[in-house]
Amino acid sequence: MCTGGCRFRQRMNKENFFEFINGKTIALCGIGRSHMPLAKLFTQKGASVTMRDRRSFETLREEGKELEKLGVRLVLGEDYLEDLCEDIVFRTPGMKYSLPQLQKAKSEGKIVTSELEVFFDICPCKIYAVTGSDGKTTTTTIISEFLRAEGYTVHLGGNIGKPLLPEIETITETDTAVVELSSFQLISMRRSPDVAVVTNLSPNHLDWHEDMGEYMEAKKNIFMHQNAFSRTVLNADNASTVSFLPETRGEAMMFSRKKRVANGAWCEDGTVYVNSQKMLKLSDIRIRGDHNVENYLAAICAVYGAVSIENMIKVAKNFDGVEHRMEFVRELDGVKYYNDSIATSPSRTAIGTLSLYEEKIILICGGYDKNIPYDPLGPVICDKVKLLILMGATAKKIEEAVQKSPNYKESEISIIHVENMAEAVLTVRARAVDGDIVSLSPASAGFDMYANFEERGKHFKKLVGELK
Asked: In this structure, which topology does domain 14-113 adopt according to CATH?
């Protein structure tokens, strides 16, 4: 009889997975939005759950009290990963798979996995998944909207903010799952979705990955384990994603905003085509920006053959976009405020907010340093920004990129450093005039001041909403 950390040898489904964990000990490393619901689910299924986290019980507050009520064992503090004695160890996405403690547990016969790895193993329905440096969330959401319009029951989650394994018992074979995947999640995955989309690739998360090579290898796992009946969608305008083409296993579809492609989607004369078939007009797309055209091209390739043209057009005409992505906040005294907190990389700010407006705007920028280059952003800011308000760890890098740009003119752009978001918003209020456009588009992560980009965006919106 298989006991302890013995590997699960038969093909998993949700029924025999829950049979397998009954009576096992499970460690959930990192208390967050994906592991809290898992603690409840696994406890209900007869497992003995330990939650491990660097934070103290006082810092956990309500989460700690909730876990105690569930009967979950807590291992807290700096040494929370020592003595991983549980049969099954789940790592949180931001935790490196290569950590010595995890590798030691694996060498001792423990099962080391993650929420999404298990979900991919036991999900009974077709899975669409999206990764990339920019545009992941919007593309993922458009795919889900397309499928819903066609009548599918859609389970949307992953890096977009919702764990999917806790709802696995409600998912049937006729449903669809649409998943956003980060490089953190992909790096240890050995199962790929039925439809894989790579929106684009540029330097990102180099504070976490060893180098750009490791980052790209992690991204490849979205399609490397597909079979011949799968589909991979790649950006024909991005050299890094094009380099993946020879390694694809199933059908490869390309998308391009600039040229025709042999198999896939492109734009011509204001119309989106897939091969020779007209899909929709660019004017049908409600959300602005060339990058959103690319997001639609990727999503159309992903669902081509499964969703009607009529339903694609209906979604394009009605979809308002995702929160924190060029989101209109308010207009005050003729000044329009936008929240683009999702822009956690220089490329996202350049192709997003800074591509939308003909006039020069006021930009709030800066945040946590992921060790990625800012030089390409400097010339774009010089062309598109009249007042640059900088904060956070990347503020100096961004300023240097601007001042080193060949098109930099000191008389045409003002640069102001602030300590925090509240000071940034008050500075804007004092300097902006009727007709100005203000955008929070940080080109950086928010971890130096916020838990994530959502928290940063919500704080910005609250501060702007309180202006009088």
From this structure: Rossmann fold (3.40.50)
Domain with CATH 3.40.50.720 in the chain: 14-113
Cα separation, 195 vs 200, whole angstroms: 16
CB atoms within 10 A of CB 3: 8
pLDDT digits (tens, 9 = 90+) for 398-428: 999 999 999 999 999 999 999 999 999 999 9
**pLDDT at residue number 97:** 82
Which pLDDT does position 346 carry in this prediction? 92
Q: What is the pLDDT of residue 208?
A: 56
- Segments of the chain assigned to CATH 3.40.1190.10: 118-318
List, as own/partner pairs, every contact residues 97-106 make where C-beta atoms lie below 8 angstroms and the sequence separation is at least 24, other chains included: 97/187, 97/188, 102/29
Closest CA to 120 of 217, 213, 222, 202: 222
Distance CA 91, CA 60 (A): 18
Name the residue among 379, 403, 397, 382 with its Cα closest to residue 442: 397
Nearest Cα neighbor of 363 from 424, 405, 308 is: 424
Sheet holding 111-113, edge to edge: 73-76, 48-53, 25-29, 88-91, 111-113
Could you give the maximum distance between any two Cα atoms of the chain, in Å? 77
Q: For the residues 267-275, what does the mean pLDDT come to?
A: 95
Residue reference for tokens 């209109």: 328
**How many other CB atoms are there within 10 angstroms of residue 412's CB atom?**
12
Nearest CA to 71 among 107, 106, 117, 25?
25
CATH topology of domain 327-465: Protein-Tyrosine Phosphatase; Chain A (3.90.190)
User: Are 122 and 98 in contact, with CB atoms under 8 Å apart?
Assistant: no
CATH of region 118-318: 3.40.1190.10
φ, ψ for residue 351, nearest 5 deg:
-85, -10
Query: pLDDT class for 8, splitting at 50, 70, 90?
Result: very low
d(CA 291, CA 299): 12
Q: List every span in the chain annotated with CATH 3.90.190.20.
A: 327-465
| pLDDT digit string, tens, across residues 132-159 | 988 888 999 999 999 999 999 999 999 8
